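The protein record minuted underneath.
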Amino acid sequence: MAARAAALRAEGRQVFDFSAGEPDFRPPTAVREAVASLVRERAIGYTPVAGMLALREAVAEHLSHYHGTPISPARVLVSNGAKHSIANLLQAMIDPGDEVVIPTPAWVSYPDMVRLADGVPVVVPTSPEHGWRLQPDDLARVVGPRTRLLVLNSPSNPTGGGYRAEDIAEIGAVLARHAPQTCVMADDIYRRLTYAPFTHASIVRVLGDVLENLALVDGVSKTYAMTGFRIGFLVAAENVITAATRVQGQTTSGAATPSQHGALAALRDPSVDAEVAAMHLAFTRRRATMLAALGAIDGLRVVPPDGAFYAWVDASAYLGATGLADDNALAQWLLDRHGVASVPGSAFGGPGHIRLSYATDDDSVVQGCARLAEAMSELAARGAG
């Protein structure tokens, strides 16, 4: 969809792009200056496979404070983005036939990364009635002796749904009873992009005394608008990190050196917090604008997201009688006819939905939602006819 939107822009069409999965802000000033200074003043060589020690120390310190438990640099692996962190973990932990539980709708890459590790993705649908959160009874029905990993993405891409501490505690209790060998992987990449009254809950604080195996995936891409830097962090038991580092050593080696210096500045420079806060304020404002606009369109349903920067929109009322068979056809029609770029929900395991990102400027949110309202009005008239 993003490629098609770019092609339409090249033809001179106005396109409101709600497909982006990345902040539209520049990285913090300190990050840009750190990278520029490095490139100007030094030769740039390789780093250790696991990442620069200074960066691993900064990650360990930062996450120790957040999760309320000491984390040593030996438990940190710096990778080429959080996606790479997840792939390394799966390659290190999953044997052929091992099962990985994935609540859906879910980020599109999880199932295929499990398959690449010769694992078996076990998808468990969630519902809007439960805020798109995995329910303990549903988990209990699918876990067993081959369950090796449970993926918890909070807040979630694409729904924006988040797990509260009590939700995580109930999930941990199910695993302790039925599958204590299971590791819980918390994909925390959106943890600092949340909206009141929701607050992100640390699985370490909640489950640290209940389950032995916990893994954290984090990074700088969303919080610090550093998607193109490709820096992610994996935190796990030392033996897991050792294995994951070996995998990385035989595939990519260490992450890009300038990017690691940028990430170090993001974590260490005190001036960064004010810029992160300003970005968060903008997302909060855009979220409110988009939710108000979507709420005024008959037939569209959306659960207000707890975090991230997506609206997960149920558009099933506009399918079928309008001549559009599914969400893929709807997304294509919205883009080609009205210049509104979205992402079809089927890609995330949520047919009948579209994902709209408000990681774009305020004017585009306002004008793009107005264009979307016009499009849905046209579809409603077509369906009524």
In short: The mean pLDDT is 96. The domain at 29-268 is CATH 3.40.640.10 (Aspartate Aminotransferase; domain 2). The chain has two domains: 2-26+273-380, 29-268.
